[in-house]
Design brief:
Layout: H1 13-16, H2 22-42, H3 47-64, H4 69-78, H5 80-108, H6 110-133, H7 151-154, H8 184-199, H9 203-222, H10 228-266, H11 296-309
Length: about 300
């Protein structure tokens, strides 16, 4: 991915923007996350259709010889020292690292924050469309004949989750287990990796930025929560979000300009008979204001009478 598409030149509106107020950002982020969560729940789809989609993905991977999830899952399920930490990574880091990187960008790189935030939100909404249009059964929920082990269920005594994905025990009904395509675990991890690589100030930070998406990809495959094609789709969703981020920012800026222009047009102006210096019209006097020479017809008449009485 070219870094030039992420970096904003100093003369662009993105770079000129200051850090948004936190009290304006929180409702926006909360609204998008609520839509994401609600959409996942509403897009449960038909179980048989979701299973069929999963089987077809697996068949396509076998045909292309990219079905990497099966050997990884056998290794994770047969090696608790690897499988248990992987389940913790799958259940927790998705919800911890992404907000942490977002806050870090807001505090340390405000000129880049708007673009990165918009990129993340748009990609998330595109992923939600994928869940809705293509509900997909993850490998761990396929029939046993396909040879996958649900490590989340196998190692559930070691964590807070039960047998229903990474949801806490008793709350499995609040998650959609058939939202495997695309993998936003991988998509969000890729976003975090790009942010750490581009804006991290040390080699260690850049190394973490490279390693984190790879780690999450291996974890989602080894725990049988996603197919390899899910991870490819998750990466493609992030690319689409990045391509749409700048046009979305320009559109938002244009909308704000139109709203500001209309507001200024509707704002009431000063009274028509009062100038900048609070002067009145030629024939108008404030209460108890004496007439001034040279102003109005009465003053002119008085001046004429005086002139007539002046000795010649």
């Amino acid at each position: 991915m070219s870094t030039s598409r992420v970096h904003a030149a100093p003369h662009t509106p993105v770079a000129r923007g200051t850090r948004p107020h936190w009290w304006a950002e929180l409702p926006l982020l909360a609204l998008v996350y609520a839509a994401y969560t609600a959409g996942r729940l509403l897009a449960r789809g038909d179980v048989s259709a979701a299973t069929g989609h999963g089987v077809r993905l697996l068949d396509a991977e076998r045909l292309l010889h990219i079905d990497f999830e099966r050997p990884l899952n056998r290794f994770f399920s047969g090696t608790p020292a690897v499988g248990i930490p992987a389940d913790f990574v799958y259940a927790a880091l998705h919800y911890l690292v992404t907000p942490a990187v977002l806050i870090w960008l807001w505090r340390r790189h405000p000129a880049r924050y708007r673009l990165m935030r918009t990129w993340l939100l748009l990609a998330t909404l595109i992923g939600l469309a994928g869940f809705t249009l293509l509900p997909t059964c993850p490998p761990r929920l396929l029939a046993a004949v396909h040879g996958f082990t649900d490590t989340m269920a196998e190692y559930s005594p070691y964590g807070w989750w039960g047998g229903e994905a990474s949801a806490p025990r008793g709350l499995g009904g609040l998650t959609n287990q058939y939202a495997a395509m695309p993998s936003l675990h991988v998509g969000w991890a890729l976003w975090c990796g790009v942010a750490l690589w581009l804006y991290g100030g040390s080699r260690a930070t850049k190394a973490i930025g490279m390693a984190y998406p790879l780690l999450i990809t291996v974890v989602v495959l080894g725990t049988a929560n996603h197919y390899f094609l899910d991870t490819v789709a998750g990466s493609a969703v992030m690319v689409a979000g990045l391509l749409l981020a700048r046009p979305a920012l320009r559109l938002a800026a244009a909308a704000r300009g139109v709203i500001a222009a209309r507001a200024s047009e509707d704002a009431p102006g000063p009274p028509a008979n009062v100038g900048d210096g609070c002067e009145t019209s030629a024939d108008e006097r404030f209460p108890r204001q004496p007439a001034r020479a040279g102003r109005g017809p009465h003053a002119a008449a008085g001046a004429g009478d005086g002139a007539a009485r002046t000795p010649g």
